Amino acid sequence: MKISLNWIRDYVALEAPVEEITRALTFLGLEVEHVATHGAPPLDNVVVGEVLTREKHPNADKLSVCTVDIGPAGGVRTIVCGAQNYKVGDRVPVALPGAVLPGDLKIKQSKIRGHLSDGMLCSGKELGIGEDQSGLLILEGRPPLGAGINGVLPPGDTIFDVEVTPNRPDCLSHIGVARELAAWFRKGLGYPQEKFRGEVGDARSELFASVEVETPADCPLYTAHVITGVKVGPSPAWMQERLRAVGLRPINNVVDVGNYVMLEYGQPLHAFDARKIAGGRIIVRRARDGEKITTLDGKVRSLSSRTLVIADTSKALVVAGVMGGENSGVDESTTTIVLECAIFRAASVRWTSRALGLSSDSSYRYERGVDPHTAKEAAWRAIDLIVETAGGRAEGPVCVVGGDVPWKREIAVSSAFVCERLGFEIPAAEMRAALESLELNVTREDPAPAGGVTWTVSIPSWRDDLDRPIDLVEEILRIHGTERIPHARVTSVGLAAEDDPVVAFNRRATAY
């Protein structure tokens, strides 16, 4: 999974160097496979300019000669340009003589087809912030002339490509990784604050009627919210930048919000165009043998009766937990959406993904387990972002089928047990602080008969991997730091025979 450092800093104030954060992730159990930079590098002598005039080059059909104002300090420059996507009045990046662009491209005053060019007008790719080099990067918001381009473009980012073990699906999200880093660096953790808290307008059955779940064992929770008055278009630059940074292609504001919240919370979502749901009803059911659906990748899939689908009254709309269909997707004409936030049984999604040879970011998470107890917050967060980026408002009905299975898991563990299993001493106060930094909160503390204390620890729903006292020993050691384990001589009981392998090993080790 790719993790954006800028994104992580939304939740925890990390000032540590990248090398130290990389080391922390490794010791926390998240193997860092690669670290990369994303976005514009430091760019000296690249500033904001405004195109004043644009005339055809006298000696080249595809070139233009432009006069460009770069502010009081730089004046007006004459620059030859081959792009076609700009017009007089646009503000664009200008690389002045002396600038060095990514790829070691040195900018200098030169003659192009016999005409002096005092710099270069730049595309996004030439600045190192994208792949599009077909035209100039048109700067939005009319930034001040002469301003350094690094102060105008989104800040550069560091991307960690981490390997998440199957028992830690909570770390398939930026919030989950931020929680780990906050514990390691002893920092506070802040969560997104949802503005939407479930309040909706009057129920409008003409827009959407109901949800029916025929297979509750495979879909223990399904929620659907209706949002009207949306205007589908490009998502804001900050959201596009974050999605690109972690390897996703922006589509539109509604789809991008779904992907953004999935990467933030670890909860997949799906948006339907309400007009395309026949009968105004969503039915979670098994597919019929041979039933077909064209998924969003453009391929026709033949389904079996083991495949769970989201359907309307006439057709399958989505391969549940894996990928949506072309026949219900959001497009530029969409004005009302139905937002799905659901929990699907991991084994069902895993079987479907393998049977169809189809994997997605959603199936990757469902196969490993999605926490049903944060689904409501993820849906509310998505509604906030849709209203912010696409407009509209939440209407009734809100359909909820199934519900949270009541969650309460507590583990009792003593400080003596921890020290015995570790083989070295850690102060009890440090143990408790390590647990609580991971939101494994101590609900009760009692004196232990053999000395020390015994804690009753509340396990949050996103840590389903913790169910025994020894699991808490591992959590304490992770935060304490395995590199702090004191050196000790290896001892073992064995027969004092010359050919005993343990005795022979100890003698060889002692010799060194």
Summary of the model, kept short:
The chain is of the alpha+beta class.
What does this molecule look like?
- This protein has 512 residues and is an alpha+beta fold.
- The chain is 24% helix and 26% strand.
- The longest helix has 16 residues, at 375-390.
- Helix 4 (237-245) packs across helix 5 (253-265) and helix 10 crosses helix 11.
- The chain has 12 helices and 26 strands.
How is this fold's topology laid out?
Layout: E1 2-4, H1 5-8, H2 18-27, E2 31-38, E3 46-56, E4 64-69, E5 76-81, E6 91-95, E7 100-101, E8 105-106, E9 110-112, E10 115-117, E11 120-121, E12 157-163, H3 174-184, E13 210-213, E14 221-228, H4 237-245, H5 253-265, E15 270-273, E16 281-286, E17 292-294, E18 300-302, E19 308-311, E20 316-319, E21 323-324, E22 336-343, H6 346-356, H7 361-368, H8 375-390, E23 393-402, E24 409-414, H9 415-422, H10 428-437, E25 442-447, E26 453-459, H11 469-480, H12 501-511
Parallel strand pairs: 13-16
Antiparallel strand pairs: 1-12, 2-12, 3-4, 3-6, 4-5, 6-11, 7-8, 9-10, 14-22, 14-23, 15-22, 16-19, 17-18, 19-20, 20-21, 24-26, 25-26
Helix pairs in contact: 4-5, 5-8, 6-7, 9-11, 10-11
